[in-house]
Amino acid sequence: xxxxxxxxxxxxxxxxxxxxxxxxxxxxxxxxxxxxxxxxxxxxxxxxxxxxxxxxxxxxxxxxxxxxxxxxxxxxxxxxxxxxxxxxxxxxxxxxxxxxxxxxxxxxxxxxxxxxxxxxxxxxxxxxxxxxxxxxxxxxxxxxxxxxxxxxxxxxxxxxxxxxxxxxxxxxxxxxxxxxxxxxxxxxxxxxxxxxxxxxxxxxxxxxxxxxxxxxxxxxxxxxxxxxxxxxxxxxxxxxxxxxxxxxxxxxxxxxxxxxxxxxxxxxxxxxxx
Amino acid sequence: xxxxxxxxxxxxxxxxxxxxxxxxxxxxxxxxxxxxxxxxxxxxxxxxxxxxxxxxxxxxxxxxxxxxxxxxxxxxxxxxxxxxxxxxxxxxxxxxxxxxxxxxxxxxxxxxxxxxxxxxxxxxxxxxxxxxxxxxxxxxxxxxxxxxxxxxxxxxxxxxxxxxxxxxxxxxxxxxxxxxxxxxxxxxxxxxxxxxxxxxxxxxxxxxxxxxxxxxxxxxxxxxxxxxxxxxxxxxxxxxxxxxxxxx
Lengths: 274, 248
Known about the structure:
The structure holds two protein chains of two kinds. Chain A is mainly alpha-helical. Chain A has 13 helices and no strands. Chain B has a domain at 1-67 and 156-165 and 184-248: Rossmann fold.
């Protein structure tokens, strides 16, 4: 245990810890919506499209995360809009956005002269290089998401459950969906620093699925997911520090181990009850 | 005595993209009506309901509603459209029918919560109210959806094939509940089986591209043919027999 606290004496570890906490809160809440409404694939699409923004950011010389944020929000809205207005089906539209974003990103990073940016840290995350500014942004976003979801809890729940029915109840479904998707996009972008484009979806699905083993209530899944995400990210961070392995991968590893333990726990509990 | 009109559909055309599903549909719904909507699959039954609920705008024609959708119309959608694994409790499903958009942040009033509890009591699912919907049987789930449709105390109840995926025992019970509800409100019910619903409904609407209104609950194969409604008529009489006619 001593080494655990020792590890967090360094500033970069403290920043990483704060980042882990705020990402855990954002992703725990947002992921509950994603998993319940079965839009994991859309979220994957948004994540990968944002890579295009990172590439352009590098090429034009502005903060790549800003580019990622613009791309993520536009793709979230674009996927919703185009699949409603055109004849292309929803999942095909996601596939197009997904691959086009990645292609753009690669092209622009390739075109960027001189110093080749650290691709790996965007693809697989590097929580240890999170800056103080990043942590403030993450704090702001987790506050925003937390407030929005607690104030608008009922309409969000009803839209996620039965959108068509919600439309008959005077709930402004379309506007609400655009706002939620924009929040999904922002949560994804800020998690890219922590866990990387390819691995982001894990924080939005594994804790929720683990929570869902123990509870079948939307609100509880949100709370449990935040806690599970926190435990997973902190454990992963520590393991990454101790064993000197990439943090993103070790966070996912911890989350999956928690998931398996939960499954076994539930199985044992059921056996002993019957 | 003049009956109160609830919905007036006048020369309505509607469809998706470039295909018209419904053409020149006329229908007036009055208070205490009980209309059974029948017709072949893809004939436009669900499209008609969507028009009534404001989920689809007519491409031509007019729909006049004399009641608000959110508080005046209760809706029970088709069973297949429901995600049964969604993490939501029975009570929250029922309460979702009470949102009218009038209250700040869409909160529920104490009165709405009382009404929800009362309805669950009446339908015999009060003991399930904190259970997730995934643990319910087909019949129990339909009861919950019926509570959701009724919690706003509507003057019109719209049901889309409420008898699918429920056992026979509940189906009979459901029709009895509807007959009782019909004393206070109008009901529009879509069904693929005109034989079963005809003793309960007052009038029949055949929907196949256009709508033929039949002002009685008794309908014959000949009448169906003139309405251009190619469905098979199953007679559920004392002597079970089936009248099957070749579809066009």
